[in-house]
Amino acid sequence: MGSSEFFGLATIGYIVAMMFYITYLVIKNKTIGIIGTTITVASFVSHTAAFILRWVESYQLGMGRAPLTNLFESLTFFVWCLILGYLIIEITYKTRSFGAFITPIAGMALGFIELSGISKDIEPLMPALQSNWLLAHVMMSFISYSAFALSFATAMMYLILKTKDKKEPFYIFWILACGMFFIVLAGMAIDFIQFKLITKTSGELITNFLFKATFRAESPFVVITSWLVSIIFILGLWQYGYILRNTIEYFKISEKVLEDLTYKTITIGFPIFTLGGLIFGAVWADQAWGVYWSWDPKETWSLITWLIYAFFLHTRYIAGWRGNRIAAVAVSGFIAVIFTYLGVNLFLSGLHSYGGMK
Fold first, then answer.
1. Which pTM was predicted?
2. Angle between helices 3-27 and 71-93 (to 10 degrees)
3. 328 with 285: CB under 8 angstroms?
4. What angle do CA 240, 242, 248 make, to 5 degrees?
5. Listed residue (12, 134, 124, 126) closest to 79, CA to CA
6. What gap in Å lies between CA 357 and CA 340, rounded to an integer?
7. Of 8, 67, 159, 299, whose CB count within 10 A is highest?
8. Is residue 289 helix, strand or coil?
9. Could you tell me the residue ranges of all domains in the chain?
10. Of 211, 36, 42, whose CA–CA distance to 112 is shortest?
11. What's the pLDDT tens digit per position in 88-115?
12. Euclidean distance between CA atoms 342 and 348, whole angstroms
């Protein structure tokens, strides 16, 4: 078996584990949770083997580079870091309920890979990418992204637990954030079925068909139906959000633990992102293009992301913010992370266009 087969097994395993974790959260069956953890661990082992094999394969092809230099490799590395962080939390805090919030993020990233037709080939690096600074920049960026993803999940759980009044702004905030997250995930799944399993379309950029089966379909009826279903879903989540809160409360996860985890994961991710994402990225940019900072869209959005998390730490230390406000900042930060990495690559052009999907 080669790296692609191991990556395939890991992808299937994570998606199956996601379903088990969500089922475990709903029906509270311990056996279901154990199965979810077992599948996650097995998938993580397969994922690790895939990385090692891909690195070996690059040497066999005469390239000898770390598997971190294109969109496929960086996304899979992000998922690897995310799952590693989750397993550490599960073992440390002895709870599996986090899995229902972490594995959908991994599922979305892996679904994006399959849906978009991203090239999985091992290809030679362009001259600008042939630098040790690139390895440090990309690796540290995605370690920090995975830490921010964990903080997103714990902050979201905190908001769900703390807000009870349906008219409260933070209740509406988490309803919209959570609702949009699952709507996007569902939309990508429908696109995958439509374009990959039915028409067998491959190699197209996601900008050509993202939500083409739903919100951007050619049929006005499908578009209107997609919006109506989404609105009904969000309204239903708003009306019955207390069920999700009661479910989380069943697992006896204290609000203090969630707040502490949000803070700890951000304090881990922020300095790594500062050093690897910004400083090392600037050094590499100077070597590659002769300028430390060019206000490239990726650089600009990286700075915006950095400012949001700097605001989180500043308001917590200096202003003494706690509770819902600081949790909402953590959620907003990860939304900025998603746009920094995917949104910029898809919708904006610049020096980082090498990270596209071709």
1. 0.81
2. 40
3. no
4. 130
5. 12
6. 15
7. 159
8. helix
9. 3-158+255-355
10. 211
11. 988 988 888 888 888 888 877 777 776 6
12. 10
